[in-house]
Every structure is written in structure tokens, then in C-alpha cells.
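Q: What would this chain look like folded?
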Amino acid sequence: MRAAPPHSFAATPPPPKAASCASDEGSLLYMLLFSCCSAALLLVNKVLMHAAPLPSFISTLQFAAATVVSLLVMVQGCAPVDRFVRRKVKPYAMYVCMFVATVYCSFKALEHSNVETLIIARSCVPCVVSVLEFFFLGRALPTLRSWVAMGVMIAGAVAYVATDQAFRLDGFSAYTWVALYFSIISVEMAYGKYIVGPHLGFASMWGPTLYTNTISIPLMVAIGIASKEPDELCRVTWSAKLIFLLMLSCILGVAISFLGFKTRSLVSATCYTVLGVANKILTVTGNLIIWDHHASALGIVSLCVCLCGASMYQQSPMRANAHLAVEASASRDENAGILMPAHFARGCPNESGTQEKVETDVEEYNEGGYHERGFCIASEEEDTSRRIPEESRT
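A: My prediction, written as C-alpha cells:
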């Protein structure tokens, strides 16, 4: 039998996962921890922005915490060391521009809007991404199920806007930051994951975390200075509660960086999607409990409709005739210095052994968190032959 080429993913498929979302107690524990951290981070960031509207300062602290933890994990030998090298830094510098803009806009949206408004915007992103991927990235049109799902999402979003008190008072100006967030994350979701990915050859999930957060710090600091945030920082009244919330947000962000990857490796893609919807519901429930800065009852119902549509949505496969075009485009991009080889565009093996691009949950990252997305990280149970040898990545 002829062996698969070094750069191919055509290795022996791993044993199929159990039908249940949580096949053992360990998986259930990671799912629970991931859900709690995911729901809590968005709420903590909202409370922080209510008490101290300092998006750049808060983000920079969170980036720094993730950077320090990543370095400590590597220095202590708990993970392989990923050094900063030019061929990895260059594409990450491009990606981080979108990343930082998304994080900053999400914080500003939390400052001026309800948590539910941001969740609605995030849930509707697939409606734009599916179109962008069809025209520019070689994917097929959405299936009937996905069209219905997008229709449900849009209906829920329209109903939410119609019941939103802020929209009634200020019109579309109430959604300025939400609209910016929606626009940037749509482009990032469609193209950002093609700039950075497994072809860069990180030894563990801590490598992407280190790169993303470290490179993001100077850019976020620059945004803070440009927006005159240091003046606001001097006027903040610091209290033990505020300091505790800042520390908690950093801890939750680092926890999500690890738990998001770990949970994704233990459960199926469908289960992970459902878990993401459950996280949003948990966030909304917590927001209803802790204070009165939330949507109306009709707004909550509209949000639930939107989340139902999000849970139904399925990403379209690559078009049958798109692979040659993708490879040609990838070759041009690689020659231009973008480092986007064709084997990455083709995707990563899923639990059934077929090729698919891994779509991880995103609300933890875009709504104030900062863990990496879109990477195919081989789990401990997977055959190491499925990893791309280092010499084939250059």
C-alpha cells in the first residue's frame, strides 16, 4: 500500500466519537468548565465597561495575562516552546489587525449596548460569512436547512431591533459599535482563518495564543492612546471590587484559551455548536439575574429565536471544482508572503476521517476574550502522523 505524502492529511482516521456529547466524565467536566467561563467572561466584561469604560486598558491587561501564562507554560516544560520567527509573525501581524479591531469594537458595543444586542449581532454573522465564502473562498451555496436557519436568525434579529428601547430612542446610531463589530468579524471569520492556521507549524495551542496576544498588545495600546484613554484612566475610582473584576476577567480569558481547544478536541462539531448556543443562553440568564441592564421580555424571546436559527445552521462544503482554484490562489498568496498553502485551505480531518475546516465557537474570543480560533490541533488520542511535518511547512 502506497503511503500518504508527508503533507497529506490522509492518515488512518481516528476512532469515531461516541454519539453522546459527553462520552465520559472528563469530557463533561471540560464542557461544564468551558460553558461557565464562556458565559462569565462576557458578563464580567460588561460589568467592567459599566464601571470603568476603558476598553483598550482592559484588553491590554487580558492580552498581557495570556502572554505571561503562555510563556510560563512553555518555560516550565508543560508545552513545547514556540519561538517568534519571521515567517509566523508576518501573517499574524495581518491577522491581529482584524483581531484587535474586533475586540475593541466588542468592548465599545458592550459599553453602549446590552449583552443581548451583541449576542444577536454575533449570531447573525454566518448570514454574511456564507455569502463571502461563496464568492471569494470557493464554498458552495448554503443548503436549504442553512437558508431556513439564516431566515430564522434574521427574523429574530429584526424582532429584537423592533423591541429594543435604545433603537426607539436613538435609531440606528444606537448600533454604531455593534455594526462595526458585525462588519469586521464577518470579514475576519471569512478570511482571517486563512491567513493563520496549522500550516504555520505551532507545536501546541499555546503557540497561537502567545503570538496573538503578544502582537496585539502594542496595537491595542496605540488605539488607547489615540482615543485619549490615559486621561480616562486617571479619573477612574479604583476599588477592591474593580480590581477583582479585572483579575477575574484575565483568569477567565486564559481559561477559555485552553478549555476552548480542549473541549473541541473531545466532542463532535455538532455538539460544540450546540454548546456554543447553550453558553449564550447561560450568559443571557446570568445577565437577567445580576442587574436590570438587559433586554425586554420580547427582546429575550427574539434572541431565543435567533439562537434557534444559529443552532440549525451548517457550514457549506467546498465546491467540487474549487480545489484547483484554491490551490492556485494559495500558491500566489504564498509567493506574495501571506503563507497560505493549499493544504490548509482544504481543511482538517474531522472525526469521520473526511476533510473539513474546523469552525470553533467564537463568542468567547470576540466578546472580550482572546483565544485563537480556526486551528486544527491534534488531540492526544490522534495519530501523530496526521500532523504536518515541519519540513513540509516551509
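The radius of gyration is 21 Å.
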